[in-house]
């Protein structure tokens, strides 16, 4: 079986990946589309730092303890797929059903996340295993490409839900990469009547407007806080200094939701947040209901994710796609179509 794996910081194609065999409660699926996530790009460049940070973090166990960077890494967690076969005694949807799933594989020995793994094959391969209890059939004839964006859209929906924003409050989204765009789409779905989006990239500002932002702002011209007074700010950049800059410039009493993943140590002035009584909420991932709600919203046309899809590549093009995604003016979401 063919698949793209991370090896020595580069994505390479293997032709000798063992065919996955579904066990009880599992299904074998044919991958139709898999989005390249920003976290995959981060892991390819900074995998050692991410693993070290995971090992230092208390309260969750070492979530990446079994990953060996000297061996091939399977990735790909934004996928849609077609059921081929089911494991022994597994009741599930019939073969040929188009599905998606939270990226987790259940087995008698525990749960394996389909994110980064030396052994659990992800969506950058021709076929993979999924858990029958977690499958969601793709409704309304929705195509596989748009269905693959269920996972990243769920990330945006989770951030918006955590903010508890009301329709009449103004939102400012700082950073219009895939996470920021997903947040804008979720704000639109929630019916928020005033959405501002800030990004240096003209292409990203244009996409933000397409996805529902009422106002787009170029921070190179002036601080976005000089041109809008948000009640909720969503930080979707993930770079050092952004949080502190928001705390310094934002109006008093805002709610700051941090969705950008910053891998470097950062510095903030608590005085800014204390004096202004700013509530700071860090968010990550989503819950099963948010995942299902994202699929429903896409399938029912409440969110049009088609403008986000700016490229498609076969397995042989994954490494080049990783490089192209570094340019914010070229792409938002590239889909791998094994």
Automatic annotation (TrEMBL):
Domain (Alcohol dehydrogenase-like N-terminal): residue spans on this chain: 23-139
Coiled-coil blocks: none
Does Metal-binding count among this protein's keywords? no
Instruction: Identify the SUPFAM superfamilies for this entry.
Output: GroES-like, NAD(P)-binding Rossmann-fold domains
All copies of domain Alcohol dehydrogenase-like C-terminal, residue ranges: 178-299
Q: Which InterPro entries match?
A: ADH-like_C, ADH-like_N, GroES-like_sf, NAD(P)-bd_dom_sf
Supply the alphabetized keyword list.
Oxidoreductase
What's the name of the protein?
Answer: Alcohol dehydrogenase
Species annotation: Mycolicibacterium mageritense (Mycobacterium mageritense)
